[in-house]
Records
---
Amino acid sequence: MFFAWWSADSFLGRKNSLIIYFFLTALPLCMLIFLGLKYLIILTALAKFSIAICSILTYAYTLESYNSNIRVTALGITGGIGRCGGIVFPFILIASSDYWTLAPYFILFALAFLSFIVNFGLPRETKDMKLDEIQEFVH
C-alpha cells in the first residue's frame, strides 16, 4: 500500500505509476520465460507485488476519472470484471500448463504487457486535480 500511495502522490502521478508498475509486472514474467523455472519464486513474487500495486492504482484512477453520478457504478463494474477474471482465469492457466509448462507465465506476461501499452492511451492525469476540474474535463 505504501508504494502505491507514494508513487501515485509523488511526481509520477497515477497514470505514469500505472505504466511503470504494469511494466514491472511484465518484466519478471518475461525474464521467467527466458530463464526458465530456476528463479521462479523471486520473479513471481516481484510480479505479484507489482500487480497488487496496479490493482490499487486502477481503483484510485477509476474513482477519479468519472463524474460523481456514475462513479460508484464504474467502480462496481471494474470490481465485477476483476472478480470474474479471478474466477475464470485459474482454469485457463491450469489448462494451458498441460501444453507447455511456462504457458501460464507467457499468458500473464502478454496481458501485463498489453496493459502496459494500453495505459499510454489513458486520457488524462488526475494527480493534483480537484474533482470539479475532473468533471469539467470529462464533459
---
Amino acid sequence: MKPRGRRVAGSWIGWILIQPLLVVGCASVTPLPPAPPVILPTGTAIEVGSEAVAASHRAKPRAWPDGTMGIERTSTGYRFHAAGPGTLISCTGTLERPISAGCRVAEPIQSVKAGLNYAAGGPIYRDPPSGAMLMVYHGERWKDPTHGLIFHSSLGLAKSIDEGSTWTDLGEIITPNMTPAALFARNVTHDLGGGAYLIVGDHFYVYFRDWMMTGDKAEIAVARARVADVVDAAVNHNTVVPWTKYFNGEWTEPGLGGRASPLETPDTFAAWWDVSYNTYLGRYIMVAFGAPWPATGLYWLDSVDGLSWSNRKLIVGDSNQKIYVTVAGLGADPEVTGQHFYVYYVSSVKGGKGDGITHRTTDDFLARRLIILSTAESSNVTTLTVSNLDEASVEEASQSDLQPAVGAF
C-alpha cells in the first residue's frame, strides 16, 4: 500500500553562511567492476550512476547531515532537513545542489523528557489537518557526560507548530532491549539509527537496530504504532503512545526496552538506512550502509510487506566511508520513489582509512547517485544487475519522472 504523508519543515532561527558550492575535486571514485546478478522476483535491473558531489566539505555545514535526511518539495525547490551538531539544520536548493540557496538552524529540542545528552533528527511527518510537524529524532545517553564516545541510543518524537522554528519533545518511542547500564559495563556503543519510517496501511513502521540482553542482535528491526493514535497524542496531548516491536511473528514487545526479531535472513549488519515505497516495483525498498567497516558499502534490500527484507546486493563499494543514507524520489513527493531516484550519503576518504567521526568530519561531503530501474524484456528473466552509469548519459531519461513543484512555504 502506498504510504501517506511526507517530511517537511519550515521557518528558522539563525543562518549558516555557506561558500559557493564546489562540485569537483573532493574525491576520486573508482568505477565498480561488473557485478553478478541476484534473483529479484520482479525481473528488474538496477543501474547505479557515478558519484556526484551534492555538497562539498568546504561548502556544507560542519558534520551535516549527521543522520538520515527528511526532504520536502516546495514551490521553488527542495528543503533538506537533518541533524547537525546538536540540533536540526535545514538547507534549501535543488536535488542536484541541496545547499545552493543556504542553510538555517532551528533551536535545539526543548524540554527533553528523558536524560539525553544529544537529541536531533531529520525524518519528518506533517499532519495535514493541523499542519503540525512530527520529527523522529535520534537520542543519546553518554557514558561520560562530557563527550559522546560511548553512548546508548534511542528514538523519540518531537513536535513543531511554528514551521520548524522550535521543537518540543514528546518522549521516547523506541529503545534497545540492552539497557544503558549493561551497555556501559561492556564499554561499547550501540547505535540504533536515525528513525527512517514507512507508512504501511494504518501504521507507522520505524526501523532500527536492536541488541538484546542475551547478546543477540537484530540488525534490521521494526516497531509500529497507528498513525491516527500517534498524531492524536502528539497534536492534542503533547505526548506519545506506546509503540510495539515485531518479535517472533507478532507485535507483542514494547517499543521501550522490548525484544525484537531480525527482518532479514541471515541477520546481516546494516545501519543508517533509508526506506521508501517504490511505485515502479510495487514494493518497499531500503538502501543501507554495511560491511566492511570503516570503508563501508551501500546495499540494496527490498520487501513486499515491510517485514521480510531480502535481495541484499552491494551497489556501491569503493574505498570511502559511506554513511547516513537518504533516498529521494523525483516526483511530487520525495518520499515515494519511482523508476528513477537519487541516493544521497555522506562520503569520506579519510573516514574509509580511519575509524570514527574524528577522521570523517575532516573531509566529508554529501554525495549523490542516480538510480535507474528497468524491466527485462522477457518476463522469464528475474535478475537484478548492478552497473555504474555515466550520469550525463541518463539525465534526459530521468526527466520523465519530474513533476511541477507543489506546495509553498
---
Amino acid sequence: MDALYENQEKWYQDGAVDDTVFKALGAEEYPRLKKLLLDPSIDAAIDSEIALGEKREVNSTPIFFVNAIGRGPKVVCGLPYPVLKDYFDRIVK
C-alpha cells in the first residue's frame, strides 16, 4: 500500500501499477498476490460492496455510517478527530 501511494505520480502517468507492486512485494510474494486476485470470490465481494454502497446512497468519499444505540446516520466528509469525537459523544448520550 505504501509503495502505491509513494509512487502514485509515476504509475498514474505510465499505468505501470504492476511494476510498482512487484518492486514492493518481490519475486516470491508477487505471484502469490496475482493468484489471489484471480479468485472469483474477490469479484463477488467487490460486487457486494458496490451494491451496499448503492443501497446506502454512497456518492462521495470519505463517508462514515455510524451505528450506535439504534441510530445509523450517514456522516459525509472527512472530519478531524476532535469533531468526530464530539459527535460520537453526543449520539451515545
